Amino acid sequence: QVQLVESGGGLVQPGGSLRLSCAASGLAFSRYDISWYRQAPGKERELVASISRLSEDTGYADSVKGRFTISRDSAKNTAYLQMNNLKPEDTAVYYCKALGVIGRDYGMTYWGKGTLVTVSS
Hints:
By secondary structure, the chain is an all-beta fold. It has strands at residues 3-7, 10-12, 18-25, 32-39, 46-51, 58-60, 68-73, 78-83, 92-100, 109-111, 115-119. The mean pLDDT is 97.
């Protein structure tokens, strides 16, 4: 059974930092690109950052460039989102998504259940 479990969310003051983790199990981690999405109250889910299966490529939404960093550790089957200089508009539920991009996993998509990040003073 495939599971993606996000953790690391919480309440932080503006200007603060958090590191989110996405622990994957039940899949061949190196066959999957990993993305972080977020959904704020009353808004649609949006792509925040992505990392390719071997970490050779990363991409970021304009709103988080220079503040967020996505990474992954294949030995731990875990992806991370380091978030610095957080702003109130970063408040959202953050979701991890795995997309199969090679072999028999091509096109397979899995989502975690999300972790809440609240940026407020």
